Amino acid sequence: MLKALKRSSTLLGVFLAFGVSYGMGETTPMQSVPTGITCKVIDNTGKSHILQNCNCDGRTYIDVKDGSLSYFVDLNTVRSIDVEAFRANNVEVDLKTNVNPNGKLVELSKDMTCYGLGSLGNAKFYIKNIKSIYILKQ
């Protein structure tokens, strides 16, 4: 009985070690979460992409900086985001919202990652690699 228990625990240990090391280092794309937000993304090559269930960093809002203050802007209130200039750690964008349809220059983290579901599957892009995002009304 003791010998069988040792063999079982050894096999379990090998299985867990293999399972843990096999899973480590693997990355999978973020799944599209059901946000109901559809966006049109113009990448830095000028190509247009229509994405459903858009989100940024897994959230339905973006963290923008206006001077020394941070604001959390709901993507449902955004009309468009146009990249204007690149800074050390941020991207200056012209943000047009329902409240401010004429736009306002604010900053986003250049490493902010956005996701959506496109015609080829789950899509991922960094704000620093796009020209514009348009939130499409349904």
Layout of strands and helices, then pairs:
Blueprint: H1 2-23, E1 38-43, E2 48-56, E3 61-66, E4 69-74, E5 78-86, E6 90-97, E7 104-109, E8 113-118, E9 121-126, E10 130-136
Antiparallel strand pairs: 1-2, 1-10, 2-8, 3-4, 5-6, 5-10, 6-7, 8-9
Describe the model.
It is built from one helix and ten strands, in the order αββββββββββ. The chain has one helix at 2-23, and strands at residues 38-43, 48-56, 61-66, 69-74, 78-86, 90-97, 104-109, 113-118, 121-126, 130-136. The radius of gyration is 21 Å and the shape is globular. It has an eight-stranded antiparallel sheet with strand order 7-6-5-10-1-2-8-9, with no helix packed on it. The termini are far apart. By secondary structure, it is of the alpha+beta class. Mean pLDDT is 83; it is low at 10-28. 16% of the residues lie in helices and 50% in strands.
Overview in brief:
This protein has 138 residues and is of the alpha+beta class. The chain contains one helix and ten strands, in the order αββββββββββ.
What is the count of DSSP helices, taking H or I runs of 4+ residues?
1
Proportion of strand residues: over 45%
Order of helices and strands: HEEEEEEEEEE
How many beta strands in the DSSP annotation? 10
Radius of gyration, in angstroms, nearest whole number: 21 Å
Which stretches are poorly predicted, pLDDT < 50 over at least 5 residues?
A: 10-28
How many strands, what sense, and barrel or not for the largest sheet?
8 strands, antiparallel
Helix percent reads: 10-25%
The helix-and-strand class reads alpha+beta
- Mean pLDDT score: 83
- Give the strand order of the largest sheet, numbering strands 1, 2, ... along the chain: 7-6-5-10-1-2-8-9
Principal-axes shape call? globular
Alpha-carbon distance between the two ends: 66 Å
